[in-house]
């Protein structure tokens, strides 16, 4: 059985991002998506700490302490880019101006609930950052994550066990095994499966019913 | 003649009282008023409530202020990050109160405070455990939670340029929380890398108008940033 690598997952998401979208990429695999958007396709990256038109990492000697991304790594600004304060930045998010946000997640439920900030109800000091604002505010929320946990438990579930980040927010999930849409009233609808894996095998690794349009 | 420029960090921070709510600008190290935070350690105010995106790193700055037992409560979005050891220790020992606020809600609560809006409704956090205890109301068929404005007694901000009227510019993504904090506090103190003559910051380029700024102190970040 084959499965996508992290790079292949990032590249697969990048295929679906058209020119002209304003896109916020979360930390981890989502950040890697930027590397697979061809330079000639103008996608404007938003970073919630106050950047539109974010570019790749600078050469070390060109880094400045004032130009970092939401993961606090040095970045660059593309021509046409801009800076703004946090209230404007989250106004862009909450106000529905960001076309797409891609986040990682611990779990996604079949109604689109997402859990990606706290690993336990008992964790009283989890770091939420901008995750709730992005999940509630972006026009589209896609998740990129492994299909199961390291010990094989499904991450696509009927109901999230972890504390929610947002309710009914996710539209699409890209995993190392499949591309799955979350359709209101239906649940998980499989769009693509990695070569060599059957729907039955995919279902066995999924914690909720998978539907197909076929 | 109006002159908000003071000659020392001690002068810039004089009068900050015990029990104050202190808004500290910055996202990570970018736009963080490091010298004012160090100055606050010297200044001595205690029993503070600190509002900042992060809960300090290493054993310097905010982390040091917390380690000295001077912070009663921290209001932030992302307490745990690389090097947040002091926060972890104090929080686990029950020596620090914590209020977790989503990052955009944190910014908007301060913007609202500065703009005279006592509370607002937001979809962020609705249906999550951060909605517990908050009024929920539906708008356009969607649940929203009520969040209160978050005013400060003091704001400490890092500017790139300042003039004697307190007009400020910021550098790149160092702007982050600084403008909303500047407008949300009774006493706003800016450390500025460059002091400009009045009129030399182009009016179109002022990020924070001087009306929001009480005191300015010149702090050069040093080479190669001159």
UniProtKB/TrEMBL annotation, chain A:
One of its GO terms (molecular function) is CoA-transferase activity. The keyword Metal-binding does not apply. Keywords: Transferase. The keyword Transferase applies. SUPFAM superfamilies: NagB/RpiA/CoA transferase-like. InterPro entries: 3-oxoacid_CoA-transf_B, CoA_trans_fam_I, CoA_transf_AS, NagB/RpiA_transferase-like. It comes from the Bacteria. PANTHER family: KETOACID-COENZYME A TRANSFERASE, SUCCINYL-COA:3-KETOACID COENZYME A TRANSFERASE SUBUNIT B-RELATED. Belongs to the 3-oxoacid CoA-transferase subunit B family. This is 3-oxoacid CoA-transferase subunit B. It comes from Falsiroseomonas algicola.
Automatic annotation (TrEMBL), chain B:
The keyword Transferase applies. Transmembrane segments: none annotated. PROSITE patterns: COA_TRANSF_1 (PS01273). One of its GO terms (molecular function) is CoA-transferase activity. InterPro entries: 3-oxoacid_CoA-transf_A (IPR012792), CoA_trans_fam_I (IPR004165), CoA_transf_BS (IPR004163), NagB/RpiA_transferase-like (IPR037171). Gene3D superfamilies: Glutaconate Coenzyme A-transferase. SMART domains: CoA_trans. The keyword Transferase applies. It comes from the Bacteria. SUPFAM superfamilies: NagB/RpiA/CoA transferase-like (SSF100950). Keywords: Transferase. Belongs to the 3-oxoacid CoA-transferase subunit A family. This is 3-oxoacid CoA-transferase subunit A. It comes from Falsiroseomonas algicola.
